[in-house]
């Protein structure tokens, strides 16, 4: 009896020993692979990458698409030494320059600060997130006291230029169906961010960060930039004092961002698609729930709510459903808002119905009658 026990015990012991050895060999090999991969991407500090990727980042299948490290000379050449003539805007990361690298047009964002490993790790993480409705991060550079991010350039720019009267050029006349499909694209981009494990909360979704290409396909810009800034700024992100209408009031109250705060920002974006106006003007209304609904109702009655450029290009059902969805996205408490997936499904339904109603019946008459109901006193 006891000899059998000894034999079994010995066999089990041997198996455990072999398993432990195999485990060590595997661990050693994967560590070697990890550090080699890391130095290829320009990071010499694996802990920074591990810290960033804690809880598994997006698919590791990004392969050769990963972030490229650019040299400063390359970016200086691309932008003619960061010439003012190539300055195309200012974002949360700093000035944005247009540049040409091997005939490709890129947008370069520049932020001052000392080189940080955590910046490289963050860029690698963000550049692996690829989606048709997100602006792609191509690479980075950190030299001469600056962090630089290189993005693909989206030819037709931000939706602000197409919606508001910026004074520079006549805003594009985007009809209702086009606005719906732009909203759909932006919703898909946000949905993708929220579907990552862990979810990536945009934290700065606004009309200015919805860019459109030459076919008016929406691409969400600046995903993860707030997180990147939080990581590289020792003093913490500088809290801008200017009021941001896209910022969910609950963020201040609860002290943290959630997916639902992105949904709130998306609601303000929908509101601007409907009104065609910069809603910053109505900040007081947007900050409290009851008055938002009151404002919408009073403006609906006085025919001042829906963008007049939309007259004749929408159905009553379509615009009403979109207004309802907007109010749901901006309701309080945030827990009662639909998540981005539900917003996307509803937008798809509204868009499909609108396409059906306006194309089957043909352009013209029926739409104009329906649309003009909202503008009866015109
Ligand atoms: C947008 O793209 C179209 C081509 O699809 C072009 O004609 C138009 O000028 C562009 N508008 C802006 C504001 O860039
Ligand atoms: C825009 O649409 C045209 C025609 O459908 C297509 O050939 C082109 O590739 C599209 N451009 C982009 C950037 O998707
Ligand atoms: C919104 O209304 C709900 C009840 O309807 C209330 O509990 C909540 O405090 C209100 N929030 C704000 C920001 O006014």
Automatic annotation (TrEMBL):
Gene3D superfamilies: Phosphorylase Kinase, domain 1, Transferase(Phosphotransferase) domain 1. The chain crosses the membrane at residues 6-28. It is found in: Cell membrane. One of its GO terms (cellular component) is plasma membrane. Residues 38-65 are annotated as: Disordered. PROSITE patterns: PROTEIN_KINASE_DOM. Its EC number is 2.7.11.1. This is non-specific serine/threonine protein kinase. It comes from Hibiscus trionum.
């Amino acid at each position: 009896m006891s000899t059998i026990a000894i034999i079994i015990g010995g066999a089990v012991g041997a198996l455990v020993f072999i398993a432990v050895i195999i485990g060590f060999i595997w661990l050693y090999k994967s560590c070697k692979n990890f550090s080699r991969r890391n130095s290829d991407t320009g990071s010499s500090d694996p802990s920074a990458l591990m810290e960033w990727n804690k809880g598994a980042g997006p698919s590791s299948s990004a392969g050769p698409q990963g972030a490229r490290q650019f040299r400063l000379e390359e970016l200086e050449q691309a932008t003619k030494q960061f010439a003012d003539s190539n300055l195309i805007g200012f974002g949360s990361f700093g000035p944005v320059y247009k540049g040409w690298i091997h005939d490709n047009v890129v947008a370069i964002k520049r932020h001052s600060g000392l080189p940080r490993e955590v910046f490289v790790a963050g860029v690698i993480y963000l550049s692996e997130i690829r989606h048709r409705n997100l602006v792609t991060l191509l690479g980075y550079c950190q030299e001469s006291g600056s962090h630089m991010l290189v993005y693909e350039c989206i030819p037709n720019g931000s939706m602000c230029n197409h919606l508001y009267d910026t004074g520079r050029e006549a805003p594009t006349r985007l009809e209702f169906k086009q606005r719906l499909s732009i909203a759909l694209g932006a919703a898909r981009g946000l949905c993708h961010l929220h579907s990552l494990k862990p979810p990536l909360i945009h934290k700065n979704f606004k009309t200015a960060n919805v860019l459109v290409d030459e076919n008016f396909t929406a691409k969400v810009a600046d995903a993860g930039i707030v997180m990147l800034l939080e990581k590289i700024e020792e003093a913490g992100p500088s809290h801008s004092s200017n009021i941001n209408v896209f910022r969910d009031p609950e963020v201040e109250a609860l002290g943290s961002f959630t997916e639902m705060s992105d949904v709130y920002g998306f609601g303000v974006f929908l509101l601007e698609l409907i009104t065609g106006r910069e809603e910053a003007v109505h900040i007081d209304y947007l900050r409290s729930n009851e008055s938002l609904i009151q404002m919408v109702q009073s403006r609906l009655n006085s025919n001042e709510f829906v963008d007049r450029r939309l007259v004749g290009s929408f159905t009553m059902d379509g615009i009403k459903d979109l207004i309802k969805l907007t109010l749901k996205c901006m309701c309080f408490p945030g827990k009662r808002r639909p998540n981005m997936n539900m917003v996307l499904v509803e937008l798809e339904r509204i868009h499909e119905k609108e396409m059906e109603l306006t194309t089957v019946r043909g352009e013209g008459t029926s739409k104009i009658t329906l649309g003009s109901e909202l503008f009866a006193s015109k």
